């Protein structure tokens, strides 16, 4: 027996359809699992070519460096939870499964959102920024559904430091 949904799907002022609470949702509550067909990143890229799309619109969720969930195929209502730069939900990956949790209490009627935080590559163009434009309209809106630039820079610094530490730990001993 499945648990009834905590939300309903209907038109959203943010983008297309959205998920709206139909009962109070408690802080920390696991709301739903994000489901769909599990595919590779190359398969996801082949299915959804951003360059040919007028507007970025997919139901993809990267789970690992190898696996993406495509909720447009076999997915559930979780795919309708929109992005916000000031979200009331967050995602957590547990043993290869993606769950959506409430960050705070969510009253009946409020739209559910999480921060998509698409990973940046560092070479985004003005066209990329337009394609991934955020429409959340919150006071904290950063204008993009991509991760904040500061988060990208912090991640890159950490990766560089990790590579440097690994290089130091495997450096050959010098002869005297």
What does this 3D model show about the protein?
- Helices cover 19% and strands 24% of the residues.
- Strand 8 (89-94) and strand 9 (97-102) form a beta hairpin.
- With 176 residues, the protein is α+β, with helices and mostly antiparallel strands.
- The protein contains three helices and ten strands, in the order E-E-E-E-H-E-E-E-E-E-E-H-H.
- Strands 3-9-8 form a three-stranded antiparallel beta sheet, with no helix packed on it.
- It has one domain (7-168): Beta Complex (Beta-clip-like).
Please write out the topology.
Elements: E1 7-11, E2 17-21, E3 30-34, E4 37-40, H1 41-47, E5 60-62, E6 67-70, E7 82-83, E8 89-94, E9 97-102, E10 113-114, H2 126-131, H3 149-169
Parallel strand pairs: 7-10
Antiparallel strand pairs: 1-2, 3-9, 4-6, 5-6, 8-9
Helix/sheet category: alpha+beta
Percent range for β-strand residues: 15-25%
Spatial strand arrangement across the major sheet: 3-9-8
Number of domains: 1
Largest sheet, described in full? Answer: 3 strands, antiparallel
Return the CATH topology.
Answer: Beta-clip-like
In the CATH hierarchy, the architecture is: Beta Complex
Based on CA atoms alone, the radius of gyration comes out at 19 Å
Categorize the overall geometry: globular
Quantity of strands, as a count: 10
- N-to-C series of helices and strands: EEEEHEEEEEEHH
CATH class term: Mainly Beta
Give the mean pLDDT. Answer: 85
């Amino acid at each position: 027996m499945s648990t009834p949904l905590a939300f309903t799907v209907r038109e959203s002022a943010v983008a297309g359809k959205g998920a709206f609470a139909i009962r109070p949702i408690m802080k920390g509550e696991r709301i739903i699992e994000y489901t769909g067909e599990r595919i590779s990143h190359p398969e996801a890229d082949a299915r959804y070519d951003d360059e040919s799309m007028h507007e970025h619109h997919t139901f993809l969720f990267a789970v690992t460096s190898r696996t993406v969930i495509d909720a447009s195929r076999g997915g559930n209502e979780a795919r309708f939870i929109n992005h916000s730069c000031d979200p009331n939900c967050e995602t957590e990956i547990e043993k290869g499964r993606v769950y959506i949790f409430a960050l705070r209490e969510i009253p009946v009627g409020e739209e559910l959102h999480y921060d998509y935080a698409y990973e940046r590559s560092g070479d985004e163009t003005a066209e990329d920024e337009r394609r991934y434009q955020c429409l959340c309209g919150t006071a904290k809106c950063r204008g993009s559904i991509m991760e904040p630039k500061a988060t990208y820079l912090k991640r890159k610094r950490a990766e560089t430091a990790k590579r440097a530490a690994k290089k130091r730990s495997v450096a050959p001993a010098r002869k005297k």
